[in-house]
Specification:
single chain; alpha+beta; Serine Threonine Protein Phosphatase 5, Tetratricopeptide repeat; Neuraminidase; 2 domains; 5-stranded antiparallel β-sheet; 4-stranded antiparallel β-sheet; 12 helices; 41% helix; 23% strand
């Protein structure tokens, strides 16, 4: 055997190197084996063994040596060599997987899987390409694209057991898309998608329950939106450790001065504490030959009164409403005020002659035509005009030494459907600060769930 191998070294060096690589692999000498294979396809690229050597070297860098870039390079070469052969589909699937691990842009993997699914549609590897595309689209939260490739995979798999597994994944994507839309502010779109998915007939109990929970939540939110503010009720309250930004999407900070919504311009003089609002000029209408150009109206303007300092202002999620908090320059009176940008109207929601009761922040509840703000030591839900409102006392927590104080509310946050809120309230420090020391703020968060009495 040894004499045969020695002979091979001179007569068929490529075969000798292949056997040498295989022997090293068997001993766990993966780096040395890879070098042997690399020698085969670099020195003898036209020999039949070169294709197998490329594949073996790629496998070693992929599975044993964590050399994803080299594996991708070798598989690209292998892809060109195997085009038009039965091995082509398998090489494309491997290349797509390696490109994912190599840190290449997702488009490279998606393009490779796309070639596999298009050019080798009848190959068994095509389903693997579809599932890989679905996985990537999910990671990008491109839910429609993920659904499309999973639906194609289910059709290819027919009545096989694997088809049922992929169908469940497809149903999970329906739930993920509906939930994502709902909690990123597209509440109605999320609910409609959930209702559509339920009508399709969901096989997964978990997914069906998740969709039904979302639909019920939307119905509950609708009752709160349509109900009179004075009929609002506190269904639940608790103190929590954090208010997740991805859940409480709309946040209102004390002293805030946000940018103007589309179609408007805000100018805030931080020194004089004056807010000016002006409608952005409309784009000129196209001139029709032989016709007079249409008249352009003056843009609507609003400016806070000169005798009032603006302490903060906030805009609605849909950009149609502004709330601003003011205090008299020569007195103590505070007012919470509204500006309807669509109807070009301004009004006072609530006045506080003493200046000691109205808090530092207010929130506009999405879709509900209601606002929330602290007043004295209460949490208030009010209509936009302030005429219908109800005060809620929030429970204190002796263990945390936490108590709700209206003037200590630093921020309010609401879910996109507007009936769950988080309230960040500053508390006295746990210990008395040393002389010259400024204690860190100690914020305690109340989470409240609103409803409406029938």
């Amino acid at each position: 055997m040894a004499l045969w191998l020695v002979g091979c070294q001179w007569i068929w060096p490529e075969r000798y190197l292949m056997r040498k690589g295989q022997a090293m692999e068997a001993k766990g000498q993966y780096a040395e084996a890879a070098k042997a294979y690399e020698t085969v396809f670099t020195k003898y690229p036209r020999k039949p063994e070169a294709t197998e050597a490329l594949s073996r070297a790629a496998s070693l860098y992929e599975e044993r040596l964590n050399g994803w870039q080299k594996a991708a390079s070798y598989l690209q070469e292998l892809k060109a060599r195997t085009d038009g052969t039965p091995a082509y589909a398998g090489v494309l699937l491997r290349l797509g997987q390696v490109l994912e691990h190599a840190g290449s842009p997702f488009r490279d993997s998606l393009e490779t899987y796309g070639v596999l699914c298009k050019n080798c549609a009848a190959a068994k590897e095509a389903v693997g390409g579809l599932l890989a595309q679905g996985r990537i689209f999910e990671s990008l939260q491109n839910w429609p694209a993920a659904k499309s490739v999973y639906e194609e995979a289910v059709a290819k798999l027919g009545g096989s057991p694997e088809a049922a597994t992929v169908k469940v994944r497809l149903e999970q994507v329906w739930l993920l898309e509906a939930t994502s839309l709902y909690f990123t502010g597209k509440v109605e779109d999320g609910n409609l998608l959930a209702e559509e998915a339920v009508k399709k007939g969901i096989t997964s109990d978990e997914v069906r329950n998740g969709l039904q929970v979302l639909i019920k939540r939307h119905r509950k939110a609708q009752r709160f939106w349509k109900g009179n503010a004075a009929a609002s009720m506190l269904e639940d309250q608790m103190i929590v450790d954090a208010a997740e930004p991805g859940y409480f999407l709309d946040r209102y900070e004390a002293g805030a001065a946000p940018a103007a919504p589309a179609g408007w311009e805000f100018t805030f003089d931080a020194k004089k504490r004056v807010l000016a609002i002006i409608e952005a000029p409309a784009p000129p209408s196209p001139v029709v030959k032989g016709k007079k150009a249409p008249a352009v109206g003056k843009p609507w303007k609003f400016r806070t009164p000169s005798d009032t300092r603006v302490l903060g202002y906030w805009t609605a999620p849909d950009g149609g409403l502004v709330l601003w908090l003011g205090v008299e320059r020569d007195g103590h009176r505070r007012t919470l005020n509204g500006v309807n940008l669509r109807k070009h109207k301004a009004w006072t929601v609530l006045g506080d002659p003493s200046g000691k009761l109205l808090g530092e922040v207010a929130a506009i509840l999405p879709l509900a035509d209601k606002i929330a703000f602290p007043f004295e030591d209460y949490f208030v839900i009010s209509d936009l005009k302030g005429g219908n409102r109800v005060n809620f006392a929030l429970a204190r927590d002796r263990e945390r030494k936490a108590r709700f104080r209206g003037r200590e509310v630093r921020w309010l946050a609401a879910t996109p459907d507007g009936f769950e809120l988080a309230i960040g309230v500053n508390q006295p420090p746990d210990r008395k600060p040393r002389k010259g020391e400024t204690p860190d703020p100690r914020i305690v968060i109340w989470k409240v769930t609103m409803g409406v009495s029938e």
